[in-house]
Request: fold
Amino acid sequence: MLANVFTKTIRDRWLGMFIGAVTLGLLLLMGMAAYKSIDLSIYDSMPAGFRNLMSIPAGASLGALAYGAIYTSYGALTLAAIAIPMGTGAIAGEERNGTIGLLLGNPVSRISAVAQKAAAILVVTAFGAVVLWLAGIGAPAALGETVTGITLVALCFAMFVNSLFYGFLAMAISTWTGKRGIGAGVSTGVLIVGFIGAGLFPIIPGWENVAKVFPWYYYASSKPQTNGIDWWHMSVLIIGIVLLVAIALIGVTRRDLRSQSVGVTIMDRLRANPRTAKIVERLVGSAQVSGIWMKSVSEHQGLLIVTVYVMLIMSLVIGPLYNVITGPVKEFGASLPPTLLALFGGGNLSTPEGFYQIEIFGMMAPAGVMIATIAAGSRALAGEEQNRTMGLLLSNPVSRSSVVMRKTVAMVVEGIAVGVSIFIGVWLGSIIGRLGMSAGNIAAASLLATLLGLAIGALALALSAATGRVRVAVYGAIGVALVSHVLNAFLPLNASTEGLTKWTPFGYYLNSDPLANGMDWWHGLVLLVLTVVLVGLSVVWFQNRDLKQKG
Amino acid sequence: MTDQIAIHTDGLTKHFGDVHALVDLDLDVFAGEVFGYLGPNGAGKTTTIRLLMDEIRPTKGSATILGEDVREKSVDLRKYIGYVPGDLAMYPNLTGRDTITYFSNLRGGVDWSYVDQLADRLDADLTKKVGDLSSGNRQKVGIIQAFMNRPTVLVMDEPSSGLDPLVQREFQQMMREVAADGGTVFLSSHTLSEVQRVADRVGIIRHGKIIALEAVATLRAKGLRRVELEFAEPVAASDFSGIDGVRDLVIQNHHAVMSYEGRIGTLLHAASRNHTLVDMSTQEADLEEIFLTYYHDEENH
Reply:
């Protein structure tokens, strides 16, 4: 597997994709098992527009529902989320690791290196899609069910092309700039905003066409799982992919390669300017190195600022938008059974709270907090070890437990910052849209979302403390969050498994419906205790193992 | 050097799975000395240092610094220790001054005039981001942060890598000053010439075991010499095979070059028995030759 750049990249990347795809396959199996126990006729009574929103075909069968719920959204998001780091790592990752010079010291041109990396990303993503396809065949067979009305191959192909688009978007940006962070941030932003926009705008009269600006629209709107491949839509994504590869190829030839250098930021320029130096120095210069937790927060300031900004704006605009949703959609929302609404995080379109639950609190709010807390938790210890700075840090008179605690403070501060931005956004959105939502209930939902994010971030911290490996911490925490979210949606579909939601962290966030009912302190306490236990385990695990020389 | 022990290890052992990185290390390093820790790649030098710094934990055995257990009192001890890790990495987004500020905050402050003095001596630029510095200039920042609190014990793993010769000389002077003030320098190095110049004693480690522990002066006093003999006619290796103390023999037609440990008269007598000796030159072996000779012996045993 070390024959060339292409095979080495596949060697480095296939396992993450395999684990992701297998996890989704297992979720599909679980989803199908849950749907077996419920009366499916409810779906036939839905208006077509609403079924579209949920990716459910008319005359829905067991398979259609499970594929619609698991593969089209979770599956495609996960596959794209795995493709993005492959794209950012292609050239910018080699630059960050200081290995690009060594690689290109061999008779490999820059263009050849990018082309081989791109080919490897394509093959690994295709591999993930094939695993999903095999799982899609295997799941109903294992349950003895027959699936009708589903074009599984088309769905998997569409997921493959969609994921490739985001992977290559990340590659194009980070190869052009040499910065992984920019590539990851922009492509993740395009993915999340597109996912929301492509689902939201089609239900707002007069704004339907706005959805077409989002790449996600060209994957999801044609419903490949039931309608087969829409080649016009696919060709938009494929043309985009070709252009992005071209941008990466041009980008890598046009600039100086970076050798672990960090470049000059706006803050650096302001610090160097005599007129602004004093104030900037006070704000970021000495402040950022005043202690371990401040420094940790400052390391994530880019990600944190973007996340806070996106969550604030998204939470804010949802309020006024509620008023333009048509009446029939709202009325129908009121008639849906609670078990079905659990798939949306318990939301109900007939009330502003329900609308916010669907659009923000169901998935985006906890995801936003988790972006900050998982990044902070996973890199807290393992990141320093991976960067080989932990030894130097611990050569100062600070104990390992103290390092864990101060890094935890950084994670908590970051999680709270995102939580507060969600609260302010929703609260302002409610005021601007004259929705009359309770500020206390908004605070309760934001607080529970923050506590959930902190619990998952603490899990990332614990995995980071136990293994010293960033990837294990990131993927482990995301995996638990994803499985927990899906379990919490599906377990209530069956009366015999409904009680099991108390074993999922998401259950303690969503199930008390805090936007409607206010704060459930018991649930908040459970999440808090979970966080404290995981931080305690982090201290124990980190204190009792050898530091890694290279994570 | 005094007889006060600064660093002590007792049967210090570290296994990584089946790899025995360090085996039963018994070592005393004294206050007021620079101790050179020599060995090839993978010998166990970095493992020893990481055990002393409590980065990794021993499979068995123990170590103390300034009389305190490095595991139990690790945090307290670090107030008195300056450390330069091997393959030094720092925070690329921070300038040198930010880096020093950060570590000084963790240590409760620093004398900035001393930091500036160290920066002057090493010709270090603290205004640039660490990520934008060359490896040598990055190393200077690492050395400054190790010296800045006037440590009692300095533990350094290959600290000179990347430094230019002039800066290396200044750095060696700084190490000597620490020892002269009663401090201790534990210096792991490949650079034998540096150890020869700066160290009072050396420990040579191979395959996780100490194979020699000597004062530099004692090593030199072993009498190992580099000898070159020129004869009137071609000579063969067999002509020298029976002579005790001859090592690393190289025959080049009329010339024989070797390392020799013993009385020079004995060598000359034996060598001129069958051949006419035309010329000879001899010089004291440097540490590198002594070092290689030890390894050569170890490999043969």
Q: What stands out?
A: Chain A has two domains: 1-256, 291-551. The interface with chain B takes residues 260-262, 268, 285-286, 288-292, 295, 299, 387-399, 402, 544-547, 549 of chain A (CB under 8 Å).
